[in-house]
């Protein structure tokens, strides 16, 4: 279904267009005639027909993104105040997937809304851009406005819910995504976001059940399998985690976080050679290193997992080096401090082990009950040569 170019679209058709244009959670397009390449249009063809051809491509298979961009620029050269053209150009820029075009996409979508504030899909697409940028307050603002124009729209409820989760409101997020699912029980994206909120709320088993429903729908999104795999690991279901995380790695072979999680699953199962292979694959090439907060978090996680692997192999010096690297990157990494505590415990350096264990516990990564008991026994053990 297509979004009409002129005038304002009906909400039901706009919703259909939004579903088609949401890549990871859209249904597979049905087979049918492919839209002609936009570049094939002639300059004498009416603008509405040219815009319709681009729209059909972007809401369909999006096979001609570069040509779409050029055609939309040409259309805007004729009518720079055509809000729908700005919206589609923002969508085309986003579809190209180039980081340097994110700003261009945002600017075009904002221009579309400046020209036509009731262009609901443009507001949704802009919220999606903000979501990718981590600007969750902006996401909330856009989706609250959109819901005033289209109350109860499931896509809007789901994206607003995800923004609320990132803003520290998982209960509100779960509520909004349940509202979306009440209107459309097959809406995989809302079910995925509900599962993430449940994980934040400590409702792991319910989250796993929802993630399993999403994967059963064969959603081609690695983050779903990554979330499920990590949840399985936390539930001590290492074999199930391995299966889910292998899917994630297959879908996204360049994702370091997926390789790290799979390495954890292999290590947990004692498959240390396979774990080493995954950690080696997780290390980006030199030109891929980025001084961003997200990259630094991944780098810290990678060093923590190297530390755990080396600890499992009995290589205490290498393990300590890896944990210390993680702390140098992220001083408040509880898992790294926990790792150092484990090394000191093995070395029977109970004072240092206690200091690191205390720090780790404060950061949400306490020692296991058995290790804590061993440490307490060591702390209260009389020193060698002391009076009895």
Description of the molecule:
With 388 residues, the protein is mainly alpha-helical. Among the domains are: 221-284, Serine Threonine Protein Phosphatase 5, Tetratricopeptide repeat (Alpha Horseshoe); 295-382, Serine Threonine Protein Phosphatase 5, Tetratricopeptide repeat. It is 69% helix and 0% strand. The protein has 20 helices and no strands. It has helices at residues 11-20, 47-58, 65-78, 83-96, 102-115, 120-133, 136-149, 154-166, 170-183, 188-200, 204-216, 222-234, 238-251, 256-268, 272-282, 293-312, 316-329, 334-346, 350-362, 369-379. It is elongated. Mean pLDDT is 88; it is low at 1-17 and 19-37.
List keywords for this structure.
single chain; mainly alpha; Serine Threonine Protein Phosphatase 5, Tetratricopeptide repeat; 20 helices; 69% helix; elongated; disordered N terminus
The number of helical elements comes to 20
Rg, please? Answer: 25 Å
Uncertain ranges? 1-17, 19-37
What is the CATH homologous superfamily assignment of the domain at 295-382? Tetratricopeptide repeat domain
Structural class: mainly alpha
| Residues in helices, as a percent range | 55-70%
* Count of strand segments: 0
Q: Estimate the mean pLDDT confidence.
A: 88
The largest pleated sheet is described as: none
What is the rounded distance between the termini?
86 Å
């Amino acid at each position: 279904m297509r979004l009409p170019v002129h005038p304002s679209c009906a909400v039901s058709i706009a919703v259909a267009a939004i579903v088609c244009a949401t890549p990871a959670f859209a249904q597979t397009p049905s087979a049918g005639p492919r839209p002609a390449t936009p570049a094939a249009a002639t300059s004498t063809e009416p603008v509405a027909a040219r815009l319709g051809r681009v729209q059909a491509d972007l809401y369909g298979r999006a096979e001609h993104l570069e040509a779409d961009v050029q055609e939309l620029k040409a259309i805007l050269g004729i009518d720079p105040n055509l809000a729908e053209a700005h919206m589609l150009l923002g969508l085309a820029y986003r579809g190209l997937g180039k980081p340097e075009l994110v700003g261009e996409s945002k600017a075009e979508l904002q221009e579309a809304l400046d020209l036509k504030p009731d262009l609901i899909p443009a507001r949704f697409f802009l919220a999606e851009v903000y979501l990718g940028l981590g600007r969750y307050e902006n996401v909330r603002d856009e989706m609250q406005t959109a819901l005033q124009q289209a109350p109860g729209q499931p896509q809007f409820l789901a994206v607003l819910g995800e923004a609320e989760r990132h803003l520290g409101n998982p209960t509100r997020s779960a509520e909004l995504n349940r509202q979306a699912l009440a209107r459309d029980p097959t809406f995989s994206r809302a079910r995925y976001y509900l599962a993430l909120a449940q994980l934040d709320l400590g409702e792991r088993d319910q989250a796993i059940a929802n993630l399993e429903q999403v994967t059963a729908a064969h959603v081609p999104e690695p983050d779903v399998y990554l979330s499920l795999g990590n949840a399985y690991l936390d539930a001590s279901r290492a074999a199930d985690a391995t299966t889910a995380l292998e899917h994630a790695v297959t879908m996204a072979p360049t994702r370091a976080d997926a390789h790290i999680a799979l390495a954890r699953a292999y290590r947990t199962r004692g498959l240390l050679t396979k774990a080493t292979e995954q950690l080696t694959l997780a290390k980006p090439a030199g030109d891929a290193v980025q001084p961003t907060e997200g990259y630094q978090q991944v780098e810290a996680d990678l060093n923590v997992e190297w530390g755990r692997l080396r600890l499992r192999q009995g290589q205490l010096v290498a393990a300590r080096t890896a944990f210390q690297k993680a702390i140098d990157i992220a001083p408040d990494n509880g898992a790294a401090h926990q790792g150092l505590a484990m090394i000191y415990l093995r070395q029977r350096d109970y004072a240092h082990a206690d200091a690191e264990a205390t720090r780790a516990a404060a950061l949400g990564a306490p020692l296991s009950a058995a290790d804590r008991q061993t440490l307490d026994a060591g702390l209260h053990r009389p020193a060698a040569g002391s009076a009895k």
